[in-house]
Design brief:
The complex is a heterodimer of chains A (about 240) and B (about 100).
Chain A: H1 4-9, E1 42-43, E2 52-62, H2 67-76, E3 86-89, E4 100-105, E5 115-124, E6 128-134, E7 139-150, E8 153-164, H3 167-171, H4 173-194, E9 203-210, H5 225-235
Antiparallel strand pairs in A: 1-6, 2-8, 2-9, 3-4, 4-5, 5-6, 6-7, 7-8
Chain B: E1 4-10, E2 13-22, H1 27-38, E3 44-55, H2 57-72, E4 76-80, H3 84-92, E5 100-102
Parallel strand pairs in B: 2-3, 3-4, 4-5
Antiparallel strand pairs in B: 1-2
Helix pairs in contact in B: 1-2
Classes of the chains: A alpha+beta (about 240), B alpha/beta (about 100).
Chain lengths: ~240, ~100
């Protein structure tokens, strides 16, 4: 039960949030890549397996762009800023709450087989947007992209709460951790360059919030997108 | 309105009465609030949202982080006074799988 006051003030941001859904279905223009996403549920950090990490990456862009302009550009061209190792198959209209986008992550060269998974756009407003990952993604995660006002101007920031999804991905964490850092640092460097800041220094901070693994979730491995992607590639030849 | 809190303890439950907005500016206050609750002998941390005006996705991430810390310390987390809207957000994010949601008495 809610009070009248609560009911009146709560939904002011309702349009910023995704609608609730039991199972995910990728956008119609990305169905080809959504085979590891369709029918899955979202999986936040509490549904993952590995240790809980908070990772933050940021780059300062100076006064040339406002947080609002930065986020508008980032939402409209999200995948364009990714390094070659990743391909984002989102809606043509850009990032919007409730969108389910497919994505592929492969070798740094951008060639060869790729792991297919996706994200749900959980939230978006004029200075931030957030993703949640589906079951089977290498991370059970919540990731927020934001434009922050700092004394020197505008800061582009990516902050995530992540656990690896299953024991197999946890085994690969030392490599995955480095690859993920390279990926998001590359993304922020590309974003900075597009706003006139060449050779920007991307900062990183990683903190372990829960050192325990959630063994009760070990069965998540049945959704492992690496295994499923390999099987898909083999059987579709 | 920035976030503030009051701590109350009833038996094994530390009640954090939150007031204001839970967004990026709330990080220090929410950390302090959990640390204060953790200094008690409570085995349950109850977050009272009755006086919370607004939560954005950064705020939800802060609550997920608090849940992770509480889990690592063996404490359960309970939520009271969520509006229908924010109950819905807890369901979307599957926070409700791990945080018991109780209504005002």
């Amino acid at each position: 039960m809610t009070t009248d006051g609560q009911a009146a003030k709560g939904p002011r941001d309702a349009a910023n949030w995704a609608a609730n859904r039991e199972r995910l279905e990728v956008n119609s223009d990305a169905r080809e890549y959504g085979y590891n996403v369709d029918g899955m549920r979202v999986a936040g950090p509490q549904q993952g397996f590995g240790r809980l990490w908070q990772r933050t990456f940021w780059v300062d862009l100076g006064p040339a762009v406002t947080p609002q302009a930065l986020i508008a550009d980032w939402r409209a061209h999200f995948g364009d800023f990714w390094p070659r190792m990743g391909r984002f198959h989102g809606a043509v209209s850009g990032i919007a709450p409730g969108d389910v986008a497919a994505l592929e992550v492969g070798l740094p060269t951008g060639t060869g087989p790729a792991l297919a998974t996706g994200v749900l756009v959980l939230y978006a407003d004029d200075t931030s947007f957030s993703f949640m990952t589906p079951e089977g993604h290498m991370f059970a995660a919540m990731i927020t992209f934001s434009g922050e006002s700092v004394t020197t101007g505008t800061r582009a920031q990516i902050r995530m709460l992540i656990r690896t999804s299953d024991p197999l991905f946890e085994l690969g964490w030392p490599f995955i951790k480095r690859g993920e850092a390279d990926f998001w640092k590359g993304t922020l460097a590309n974003l900075a360059a597009s706003h006139g800041v060449a050779g920007a220094t991307v900062e990183e901070e990683t903190e372990c919030l829960d050192p325990a693994r959630l063994w009760k979730n070990w069965r998540n491995i049945r959704h492992n997108s690496g295994i499923r992607s390999a099987w898909h590639i083999v059987t579709s030849r | 309105m920035s976030l503030s809190y009051e701590l109350d303890q009833r038996g094994p439950t530390a009640i954090l009465r939150l007031r204001g907005q839970i967004d990026r500016d709330a990080v220090g206050v929410l950390d302090d609030a959990y640390a204060a609750a953790a200094r008690t002998a409570a085995t349950v941390v109850e977050l009272d949202f009755n006086a919370v005006e607004y939560i954005n996705s950064t705020g939800i991430a802060l609550i997920v982080g608090l849940l992770g810390k509480a889990r690592s310390h063996g404490r359960a987390v309970r939520a009271r006074g969520l509006t229908d809207h924010y109950q819905h957000i807890f369901e979307i994010t599957r926070l409700s799988d791990f945080i018991e949601i109780v209504q005002p008495v």
